Amino acid sequence: MNMRRGRLAFQGQEGGGPVLYWMHRDHRTRDNWSLLYAASLAEGRERSLVVVHCLDPDYPQANASHFRFLVDGLMELHADFKAANIPFVELLGDPPARVVQLASSLDAAALVTDFDPLRHKRRWLAQVGEAVTCPVHEVDARNIIPCFVASDKCEYMARTIRPKIHRLLPEFLEPFPALPPLRPLGADSAKKLPEWSWEQVEPGIPGLPDASRSRYFVSGEAAARSALDAFTGGGLRGYATNRNDPSLDGQSGLSPWLHFGMLSAQRAALEAAVSRAEAADKEAFLEELIVRRELADNFCLHRQDYDQTSCYPEWARKTLERHADDPRPYIYTRQQLEDGETHDPAWNAAQLEMRLTGKMHGYMRMYWGKKIVEWTPSAEEAQSVAVELNDRWSLDGRDPNGYAGIAWSIGGVHDRPWIERPVFGQIRYMNYKGLERKFGVEAFLKKIQSISGGKARNSIDKED
Ligand SMILES: Cc1cc2nc3c(=O)[nH]c(=O)nc-3n(C[C@H](O)[C@H](O)[C@H](O)COP(=O)(O)OP(=O)(O)OC[C@H]3O[C@@H](n4cnc5c(N)ncnc54)[C@H](O)[C@@H]3O)c2cc1C
After folding, report:
1. Does the residue 97 lie in any domain?
2. pLDDT tens track for 333-386
């Protein structure tokens, strides 16, 4: 494999035990560059491999539905590792502390972990790196072009990162190799693996035992693969135009699995590339899946204030400041927004779709973010409400794509100045009439009504 997918994050003294792979972003046994990288280190050193995951009951913004989806996937993963004869350990508690404990008790030769640009994950890496004695490698198994290879600066917009990504694709968009043969774990090391069972682990997460499962997204690698096959086998046809119509199922619907790392974007790209879809559909899908998605990781890595207004470009901060005192046409409380109780049925329907299914349509996400700017007293409040609601209700929330998408909607990140108007200043604007020009709003409302049992409202204030 291409070892540029990983980098040595912390130097150290190799111990005499196995290589330890600490999984926390890419929850899959297949198509996982971190696992392949760890296996390759183990093979080169003639060591065995142990995989560890640690459930953190205090994981930022995670609720019982998120944990349910994660734990269901982990159970499947555990069975798959067992079948492959790779020891897998589940821990519960503060991940850096628990992983350091395990690495030292196993006298790990090296610790390999998933790259993740989010703040708490950068902190985890630093804490582990400072406390373990062995070398620590981070591997980017989420992106096709490793984030730290694609660019060493915060990219201004898709136009600036696209040529860098396209130049590197021939090197990195390669088929996945098989796992190399691994040495079995020695009896001494095996004795040091902590005993655990799901019965012990589940009650440690508040609300988990009673959390309901999504009717729309089934957790796990197998379900992710079926969804990908269905999409590349048919759904991808027409993607270039249909993806912008919220009344259709024109998107892939893969984001929950991609977010939880149960599906590799590289696998999705490889399958899309050989599908029978038209070239324009493949191109549009690969642009979102690779360029837009990798731009989001680039943004969060280089702007650790990715969820605050300070991450907006200077022109956007200035224009929003100039319009800070503009009268807002409507002001809604957080609760009214969360409950989808605005005057705008399309917005309410989108909010309801997110609450009911765990995912809002991509086109409505843009409109949803823009309207929050108009209906809250300040950009700071809009930013904070949008992040809170998206992270709480979306299965694919708490993700760089979400932080970049919200910063784009509200703060002009990855965008350019547009014609000046009230409240928004030069931030790109969207309105209800624009939705009507783009797609059949009534058909979208009917779709949401049918899944909501009639809750979505049908009237609109036409003055908006
Ligand atoms: C306000 C706002 C909030 C958003 N919140 C999230 C979020 O919480 N999680 C999330 O994954 N995406 C988010 N997005 C980006 C985008 O809307 C979703 O990725 C997409 O709708 C997911 O549905 P899909 O998998 O069916 O997408 P498809 O259109 O089928 O695209 C396939 C994959 O490409 C990637 N992708 C597509 N569009 C984008 C984009 N604009 N930016 C980055 N990656 C993209 C995603 O990984 C997606 O799963 C947000 C966008 C906005 C404007």
Report:
1. yes
2. 999 999 999 999 999 999 999 999 999 999 999 999 999 999 999 999 999 999
Q: Is residue 173 part of a domain?
A: no
> What is the whole-number distance in angstroms between the Cα of residue 394 and the centre of ligand 1?
11
Residue whose CA is at the smallest distance from ligand 1 atom 36: 288
Residue 162 lies in a domain: no
> What confidence score (pLDDT) does residue 378 get?
98
Co-location of 329 and 296 in the same domain: no
For the chain, what is the domain count? Answer: 3
Which residue's CA is minimally distant from atom 48 of ligand 1? Answer: 255
Residues 292 and 345 in one domain: no
Write out pLDDT tens, residues 128-138: 999 999 999 99
Q: Which two tokens stand for residue 159?
A: 């136009």
Domain range for 371 is: 309-452
Q: Which residues have C-beta atoms less than 6 Å from ligand 1?
A: 243, 251-255, 258-259, 288-289, 292-293, 296, 362, 365-366, 369, 390, 394, 396-397, 399, 401-402, 404-406, 408-409
Contacts of residue 267, defined as CB under 8 A and 6 or more positions apart, other chains included, come to 30, 31, 176, 228
Residues 289 and 326 in one domain: no
Q: What is the pLDDT of residues 37-96, one digit of tens each?
A: 999 999 999 999 999 999 999 999 999 999 999 999 999 999 999 999 999 999 999 999
On whether both 253 and 356 belong to a single domain, the answer is no
**Residue 55 · residue 288 · CB < 8 Å:** no
Q: What share of the chain is helix, strand, coil (3-state, %, to 5)?
A: 50, 5, 40
In the numeric block, the tokens 């069975």 are attached to 79
Domain edge (last residue) among 277, 302, 327: 302
Residue 206 lies in a domain: no
CA angle (291 as vertex; 289, 295 as ends), nearest 5: 110
